[in-house]
Amino acid sequence: MSNKPANLVFIVSGPSGAGKSTLIQRLMERDPRLAFSVSHTTRPPRPGEKDGRDYYFVTKETFRKLISKGAFLEWAQVYGEYYGTSKGEIDRIHRLGKDVVLDIDVQGARQVMERLPKDQWVSIFILPPNLETLRRRLMARGKDPLDRIERRLAVAREEISRAGLYDYRVVNSDLSAATEELVGIIAWERKKRGVAAGSEL
Ligand code: ADP
Ligand code: 5GP
Description:
By secondary structure, the protein is an alpha/beta fold. It has helices at 20-30, 60-68, 87-95, 106-115, 131-141, 146-160, 175-192, and strands at 9-13, 34-36, 39-41, 55-57, 72-78, 81-86, 99-103, 121-127, 168-171.
């Protein structure tokens, strides 16, 4: 019987445009012990997005079949599309011996918080400095049609009101500072559980 601590699940949420993908990508480059959980979605790919890397892009019919098979740890409808984390994806990452990073919405985060024991997950909410900056970032990203951007901004306030449910809140004003804050949170949470810095165990 090994004393090895269970792998952790880092739940990252925040309004669209807050910078979750950008921050997670930076974390992945910094920390080989983290692996990004690739979600299933029914939304169309954005320019440059790749199936199997950014998302598993599926039809609504396929997604509903997966729901009825019980394939998801959590799933939700966000901006009129389905999004979900498959149990298979989490198992795959755990088999690699890595900690999981989930980029999921507030509804999905709630489900994971209820379904997994508290010592296995850490929740982090990414906030934009303000709503005007959020709008600018969504426009600057330039990868969503205008009606989708408006829809995302309309639900941002509601999502931000849930930030208190999370263990940590990180304001993504300066990208490097926010990245360092996340690196610090991850290091601290591992340390609390007895995982040594730089350890492959
Ligand atoms: P999310 O995954 O939360 O929807 P993204 O990571 O796609 O957000 O970021 C939205 C846009 O904002 C992208 O164009 C990204 O390059 C930009 N961005 C992210 N973080 C910052 C930051 N700290 N300062 C300025 N621009 C940022
Ligand atoms: P986007 O379309 O901008 O990639 O993501 C839209 C929203 O869906 C974001 O809030 C993102 O966190 C959320 N999301 C992405 N994957 C999942 C998932 O697997 N489950 C849930 N519940 N939300 C997800």
